[in-house]
Amino acid sequence: MNTPAVKPKITCHICGGSFAPVDTRPFGAVRPGVSDLIAQAYPGWELGKSICRNDLSTFRSAYVESLLERERGELGALEREVVNSLKTGQLITQNLAEEDDTEASFGERMADRVASFGGSWTFIILFAVVLIGWMTLNAASLLAQPFDPYPFILLNLVLSSIAAIQAPIIMMSQRRQETKDRRRSENDYRVNLKAELEIRQLHEKMDHELAEQWDRLAEMQRIQIELLEERADDRR
């Protein structure tokens, strides 16, 4: 009975560990920018060497961080979060709608509802009906003794009280909405920055692969030319 051949382990040039071929990357498969960074830290990094996935992820994140520092200066918390997500491969998108609903207190939810109702046509129509009814009852002599005769002092007091209560509630809702908008913009910034960095890495990888293909094609052409020259010499 034939036993399956055991694939030889490959030694990582960085950590010195032995890994299966699928868990390593050879020198030629590493992008030039990352490869230069590895060579600076480990001078022996050259053709024929390999690196494990964990160390490669570390140097990739360091390369991305250096790119951001050159373009944007000192990195903030959001940029470092993006770099860490690239290193770990985790998703960075967040469902902020569900988080806002679960984190909001009872007072904040009530403020949102009051502000939403106060800015609707339903509130405007109901408020107009109440005002017209109030003034009609007290000014058109429909009641024997009007409870708020002209100039409607009680109505002015009620309106002032409603405005005094409604204004801070609306401000509370607006402040919470500003917090939501800021968190959404930060989330969009993280997602866009990560997408930009990943697209840039893909471009570098494609350029690297194309350069290698051109080198291989040029080498094949040189070999073909040599074979043709040898055949031409043999015919002579």
UniProtKB/TrEMBL annotation:
The chain crosses the membrane at residues 114-137, 149-173. InterPro entries: DUF1003 (IPR010406). Residues 192-231 form a coiled coil. Keywords: Coiled coil, Membrane, Transmembrane, Transmembrane helix. It comes from the Bacteria. This is Uncharacterized membrane protein. It comes from Puniceibacterium sediminis. The lineage of its organism: Bacteria, Pseudomonadati, Pseudomonadota, Alphaproteobacteria, Rhodobacterales.
